[in-house]
Amino acid sequence: METWRTVLSADPLPWLLEEEIPAVRHLALRRLLDEPEDAPKVRRARAAAMRLDPIAAILNAQSPEGWWVKPGHGYGPKYTGTVWSVIFLDQLGADPRDGRVQRACAYVLAHGQAPNGALACSGVTDESRPPPNSGAIHCLNGNLLRAMIGFGHLDDQRVRRAIDWQARSITGEGFDGFLRSGTSGPTFACSANERLPCAWGAIKALGGLARIPPRRRAPHVRRAIDAGVAFLLSRDPAVSDYPMGWGNTKPSGSWFKLGFPSGYVADVLQNLEVLSELGHARDPRLANALDLVISMQGPDGRWRNRYAYNGKTWTDVERQGAPSKWVTLRACAVLKQALG
After folding, report:
1. Architecture of the structural domain at 53-339
2. pTM for this one?
3. pLDDT tens string 15-41
């Protein structure tokens, strides 16, 4: 038995591989059992996932033109607007070959890019003009980068521009586009955090850059990743006492509410996910955070969804506080990378 499974209270794999929720089964086969993408069982699970909720509920709400709720830049409403629907489809493992998924990507890239290159935050419905530079924020650009690359658009020049913005906004190299109303400085400073470095934004930004194959990362992208990793490891992720604005003296409780799906809020498990994906799964500075995640499992080896976005998305993915296949999958994937 692999080492990671020995730290579980019980084996959740049979539960994760049940056919009842094929989207979980699809990703469990890939991430936990290392099944190839073209394996018949993987292909069947992904095809079934596309026919059922929650993926089907999102795609059924899409307009023929590719947007959700209303045309335009797509940030509003949370969490059913265009950008959120695309982000959640990626997290759910939607098939990039599906025409509806590709229409959504095309729409975001055509209407969601600010002049500075970022995939930016705006609720404007006017399709004729881009979102403003002031809407450039690390969390949204990172989330959308991750989705666009995952859905096969790494070579699109608009995605390359968003990558370049992301890297330079982290390091500050040749970058003078900091705005008080949006991203206000390098190393993840953000107006939403009183212009202090935002760890949630860092996690989302690095999640986007992590999707770029290592051999294809330009030097300034590698420097941005190194800066981001250094920032996230500058605190104990188990404590998450990253810089806090607006007079806050205690970390947000959301850090410790493991959930799914994930919008702009990050939890300690997503911190581990991103650092692991970037090759730091076995860094000793993650030991306390790994122990914390292990301690959160139930006696059945399952984790609960403490941040489920119930009533906010096209359909409830899971019930708040209930044993969660999605959070359990996330936790097991991190433990597999960290412990082998």
Report:
1. Alpha/alpha barrel (1.50)
2. 0.97
3. 999 999 999 999 999 999 999 999 999
